[in-house]
Design a protein that fits this description.
Length: 321
């Protein structure tokens, strides 16, 4: 396992609601702890006992096979009792409020609540009403902290560092909580961030977050070390943001012609699920030498194990202890 001395670990936050506000030291602790699980998860016997007797509840108001399964696997491999609450068939769909849900969950005495919700700020509200640690698994357009952490771990393992790298985040920035969490993390760790998208998919005043904005892929990708593509979140769009899928791919889809503007060893990333032929060409996504998309999925389990461990065992409790 990790070389970090366990008796010296202190995680200063009771919840993990976002990357914004996390220090470089805290982010590094999360990444270092996750690193210790990567090789462990490649072994035949993956089960540990550190969260034995602890209860983890996955409460997903939005569908997400990848994130929910990753958290479930992470909790079970740490020896925890994992419960997946099916919101689609629960009382939530019958009109139960978020506060009612919090009261119900409190009665179950869980140790960690993993929440995905379609409204920005809903996870924050829930964290104020429950007695356990809360991990944000994505809330509206706000943040998706564990995705940014697994992206950072992937980058650090492939490039050996994050500081000083030039990272391009391309696509549907306006509707992406992944983009926001990555912007906060990359800036905190000393990387330079570019956003590339049509003007209609760039939030107003986003430059205040310390990024450069480009509306041309060829220009924006110039000399980049990392190319991170985002899917078009059409389910969150109302109105026309671009003329057609075909035209969007022509100007903003990642193919080898556009990728030629980045560094020769530029790493290709995508948080998934991918829309092949929309934001990324299949041959680019499947490029064994340059694509880290499958590795991102593997890093997700390690990162979520680190988050569950640190919040359960090393974070301050409700009484401040």
């Amino acid at each position: 396992m990790s070389e970090i001395a366990l008796d010296q670990i202190r995680f200063p936050h009771r919840h993990l609601l976002g990357i914004e506000g996390l220090s470089q030291d805290v982010i590094s602790l999360l990444l270092d702890r996750a690193e210790s699980y990567v090789e462990h998860n490649r072994q035949t016997d993956k089960t540990l006992s550190m969260l034995g007797g602890r209860t983890i509840i996955n409460l997903f108001y939005e569908d997400s096979t990848r994130t929910r399964t990753s958290f479930e696997l992470a909790g079970k491999q740490l020896g925890g009792n994992v419960i997946n609450m099916s919101v689609a068939t629960s009382s939530v769909k019958k009109g139960e409020t978020l506060i009612d849900t919090a009261m119900t969950l409190n009665a179950m005495h869980p140790d960690v609540l993993v929440v995905r919700h379609n409204d920005s700020g809903a996870v924050q509200l829930l964290s104020e009403k429950v007695n356990c640690a809360v991990i944000n698994a994505g809330d509206g357009r706000h943040e998706h902290p564990t995705q940014a952490l697994l992206d950072a771990l992937t980058i650090r393992r492939r490039k050996g560092r994050i500081s000083g790298l030039l990272v391009a985040i391309c696509g549907d920035i306006a509707h992406s909580r992944v983009a926001r969490s990555n912007i906060h993390l990359l800036n905190a760790m000393g990387a330079q961030v570019r956003l590339i998208a049509p003007k209609t998919l760039i939030p107003s005043s986003i430059e205040r977050l310390g990024v450069e904005v480009f509306n041309d892929m060829n220009e924006g990708l110039k000399d980049c070390d990392i190319v991170m593509m985002l899917r078009l979140q059409t389910e969150r769009m109302q109105g026309g943001f671009f003329p057609s899928i075909r035209e969007y791919f022509h100007f903003f889809g990642l193919d080898y012609e556009k990728l030629a503007n980045a560094r020769e060893d530029a790493l290709i990333m995508h948080p998934g699920p991918m829309n092949r032929g929309v934001e990324i060409a299949s041959e680019v996504a499947d490029d064994i030498g340059r694509s880290a998309i499958r590795e991102q999925v593997e890093m997700g389990v390690a990162v979520r194990m680190a988050c569950l461990e640190l919040l359960t065992l090393y974070a301050p409790k409700e009484d401040g202890s």
